[in-house]
Amino acid sequence: xxxxxxxxxxxxxxxxxxxxxxxxxxxxxxxxxxxxxxxxxxxxxxxxxxxxxxxxxxxxxxxxxxxxxxxxxxxxxxxxxxxxxxxxxxxxxxxxxxxxxxxxxxxxxxxxxxxxxxxxxxxxxxxxxxxxxxxxxxxxxxxxxxxxxxxxxxxxxxxxxxxxxxxxxxxxxxxxxxxxxxxxxxxxxxxxxxxxxxxxxxxxxxxxxxxxxxxxxxxxxxxxxxxxxxxxxxxxxxxxxxxxxxxxxxxxxxxxxxxxxxxxxxxxxxxxxxxxxxxxxxxxxxxxxxxxxxxxxxxxxxxxxxxxxxxxxxxxxxxxxxxxxxxxxxxxxxxxxxxxxxxxxxxxxxxxxxxxxxxxxxxxxxxxxxxxxxxxxxxxxx
Length: 382
What we know:
MetI-like fold, 2 domains, membrane, transport, mainly alpha, 64% helix, transmembrane, MetI-like, 382 residues, transmembrane helix, two-stranded antiparallel sheet, 17 helices
């Protein structure tokens, strides 16, 4: 097993590198980079993409020296310094220069940094967990991720737990009563829940229970109340669950169908096997057969997939839910960073989440072995 884990860990490196290369290259072709964003903000223009597309007022021709359409009225020295600050260029000084590099100093000039060099500089920093500072928030990316993490973990963890707590007993019940009216109407209910878009269900919850048109039972936004620090320990717990109820329900609604049907089909496959008939022939009760023999084998694929399910919920539906319920989490931050072309946040979070996803895949394999020691990945050919 040790050799298998080592091989999987070694595969993480080229896989993560490939993901980073593809996304880094793609961003080079996306219009409206971070410098254009800063220029648009400096000039009070709300939509940088309109300028790039050629919309709006006609502008005078600035000549070949102007690299940015939105740069009219801004000094070239400001744009050069902006490129240096964002890592697109460096200051190179001659041998006679003394002191720190400065664009205004005699013998110093701006030198553009190529795409390949920028990528390797970025990856070298990532190896030391240096993700840089946000272009627009003036805060280290690591601190931003750490600050927003509790919101996304809350949605992912509680939604996954609720999905398992509801889906596993329901799936077992459906397997035992396969073909009965109970099986039919519960299948219709969970498929209908799966078909409802998460954002639409979230809006419905807001309208119904957060002061929309009916009841004001739950808060409209945030993860905690303004007076959270003044509450008692029990009050803090109650306040926390009061705030996360609607977002977690909205996130969980579509997760029941797949897990419930997977549990049901897994139990049905095991119930038809010979060892179950043998156990029944020995006079064991149905409960003993079901939970003493079938459960462990049937739940192998369901329980072992817990890490992957959590990561799927963690990454999948957080953006829309966080936006609707005004939760300041990773999904919302990543979306805003992509719109603003805040590359340190975009690539820093991509690197961290990509690494987490790959490691979770290894953890899922270890869960299989932990639940059923008969599984031997070492014997498989890679």
